[in-house]
Structure formats: structure tokens, C-alpha cells
Amino acid sequence: MIFRFSSSLPGRRALAIASVCCAVSFAGAQTETDNWTRCEGSNPDLSIPACTALIQSGRQDDENLAVALNNRGIAYDLQGRHDLAIADFSRAIQLKPDYAGAFSNRATANVALGELAKAIADYDEAIRLKPDDGNAFNLRGSAYDALGQFDSAIADFDRALTLKPDFADAYVNRANAYADQRQYGQAIADYSQALRLNPSDASIFYDRGVAYLVTGQFDPSIADFDQAIRLRLDLAEAFNNRGIARHNQGHDDAAVADFDQAIRLQPGYAAAYRNRCASRTIIGQLQAALADCDRSLALRPNDPLALDSRGLVYLKMKNSVAAIADYNAALAINPKKASSLYGRGLAERLQEATAGASDISAALALQPGIADQFAQWGIAPDKPGP
Predict the structure, then answer these.
(1) SS3 category, 12
(2) Backbone dihedral angles phi then psi of residue 43, each to the nearest 5 degrees
(3) Last residue of a domain, one of 64, 97, 131
(4) Among candidates 94, 97, 133, 126, which has minimal Cα distance to 109?
(5) Would you say residue 218 lies in a domain?
(6) Which pTM does this prediction carry?
(7) Within a domain: residue 354?
């Protein structure tokens, strides 16, 4: 899933504009005004030296100094210099203890550092100081979601949407929280609301496509991945997941084309190699499939899904020894993987006609339709190889 922590840093523009008004009465007004303009700008390379000049000038009162520190903290945060940002936000809060924006901005910097408990404490204070700030509720909800505290997260997103009914990010974040709990119907509803508000956001189409995919709704899933790709041609994950949907529909030639695109965009994409291996196996391109599984495992060693897929390749090649080795490795990681148990049982049967019964029975108990699935791949219990 894509978590969308909002990149907005609140509490900046209004106070910064007020500080410019105050600053022009000092000596050297034009230079000071220029510094305030740059300090409140969006280019960190310009705002940091301008804010620093104002901070070091000795001519700012506490409120304006707090604004300059807050603005420089935002600029540091945009550069990924989160420790420096937190130091500036902390100094701003010391000078102006009721500065809700600085609390919220320090929280956002702590989120970037993975300090979620500290972030939530700062969001709490920002909300106490400004209880009508929907953005702070949305951001705190995202922090709760990252901690797996989904009920608290959803309560915050609910409050954010009460305060800002057209808040697309809050709909997306609430959808993500629902998806994290496998409540995909509610997630899809929220993604749809977000798309009503922001119909050109590729990532929302992608997220909704994933929700449709995991619930087996392959046609709407493909339609959403189509839209995501139309909006962002470089979205390798959308090509990969559209390929998965097409594979599940039995359209493996089209799936391979999608995995090709995903790999072209992201040459180190282990999952796309693994998925292309699976589709190539189904359509009988066994040597190419084997190369793909080998590449996937080189990129992500001991991936049980790739081991399972390569086991199937070897099974179709009637290489029972290699198939059993891969299935053994996969089952050591996930002992209840039905396809690995069933595949190992069939590989054992290649070696001995009466072998493999216990693995096959265990697989059928876990997934009653596993034999039908293997049959669709051209492998029947009495004929494991092609």
C-alpha cells in the first residue's frame, strides 16, 4: 500500500506574512523585507540563509524570531535534515509556547525519523491549541495508522473530514487504514470519494486498483491500473499489478507484457521477475521462466513465493530433485503454503508412483481447489510433467 503522509507543513504562511509587516519598520527595511520574502519562500536553498540572517540579526521580537525559526525548520525538513528542523521547531516553541504550527511541524519531522510516539504527542498539543485544524487530525491519524492503532487513526480521519469535508488526503489515509485491516469495501468507497475530489491522482487509482485486486475484482482492478498508467507512465508497480490481474484472469501473454514493462522501468524489481516467471511457466516458456525465477531469487534470496514458482518450473521440466529442493526451501519458510505442498507431492510422485500422498492430502486440506489450479497450469496428479 501507499501511505500518504501529507507533505504540507502548517502554520507558516500567515505568521510569516505578519512578520514581514512588522519587519519593514526597522533600519535597512528593503534588505529585511527581501529576507522575509525569501524566508517564507518554498526554495530551501534561498529560505535557509534568509531565515538565518533574520535569526542572527538581533532585531526580531520573540514572535517574529519564532516565525523565522519555524520557517527555517520547514526548509531543513524539506532537505531531509530532520534533526536541524526539530531543533528549530523546538526553539520556536520555547519562544512562542502556543505556536500550534511549530508543534505540528515538529511532529512531521519526527514522523520522518520514525519517532511516532513523539510525533503523536506533538500533534496532540497542536490539536489542543487549534482544535479546528483538520490537517493536524489527518497527520496524527497517519501516525496512528503507522503504529497499527487503526481505531484511533480512523477516528482522527473522521474528525478531519468533519472539519474539512472535501479533504482528499484524509479520504485516502482513511482508506489505507481500512485496507490495513482488510476492510476493502470501505477502503474502496473512500478511495472513490478521494478520486471524486482529485480525479487526476495516479496513486489513488493505483491504491483502489490494489483493493480491487486483493478482493478478486479483476476487471475494475485493471481499469484502475489503466488510469494510473495513463496518468503516470513510469509507475512500475501499476504495470506489475495489472499483470497479476491479467494472470489471474488467465491472460498470461498480456501479463508477461505488463511484467516486461515493470522490469523495463525498474530493472531490480524482484517481484516482477517472479511474476513473469509464473506467467511464462503457464504458457510453456520454461527456460525463460527459469531465468526469471533465478533473477528474482538473486535479487531477493529465500523469497518463498519465488522458490515456489521455480519449483513449479522444475516440476514441469520433470526435474523432481530440483523441484523438491525448492519446495522444501519454500516450506521451511511457510509450512502451510498449499501450492508448495502439492507441488512437492507431485514431484515426489515423479520419483515413486505411490509417493507424495501425505503432501497432496495436506495441500487439499489447506486449499481444496489446489488440484484444479494445477490442472489449469497443465499439471495433473497422474501426470506431473508436461
Answers:
(1) coil
(2) -95, 105
(3) 131
(4) 126
(5) no
(6) 0.84
(7) yes
